[in-house]
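Write out the 3D structure for:
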Amino acid sequence: MKRILIGMAILSFLAMANETLCAAQKNPASPALSAAARKEAEAGAKATLAAKEWTVYLTAMGQKKAGQETDVLNFAEGKLNSKNLSSKGYPSSNCTITVQPNGTITWETMQTTEKGEMAFWRGDLEGQAMRGVLSLQPVKGQARGFSFTNISSTKQ
């Protein structure tokens, strides 16, 4: 009888532990960082982004013929500057930078020209690999979307 009760208790414990584990995997809670630790992580992320110019390769989304454009991004003083877009009237703009629990640096910004054209950027940096999306919204016409990475897919 004791063995049955102990066996049932163990099975109940394992079932509860499995349920808790499955719930944690479906909805992982990010560890709470103190304000000071978050600020320190974001300062480190800003320094990582600002440490160099990032050559990125943009690929238009939704086009039959895939082609790549090259752009150079820099993140000086917490602002994004795109070499290609600055030549088209897009000014540097402040970036929102977040450090994810796994260490990935996520950055986002919106640039607007004097004509009202908009560019929306979102990127992730994992180690030295950057990838993300760019959406260009003209005043008139259809928006164009691009994915980008700092790893070229063209053979050299």
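The beta strands are 54-60, 68-74, 79-82, 93-94, 96-99, 105-112, 118-126, 129-137, 144-149.
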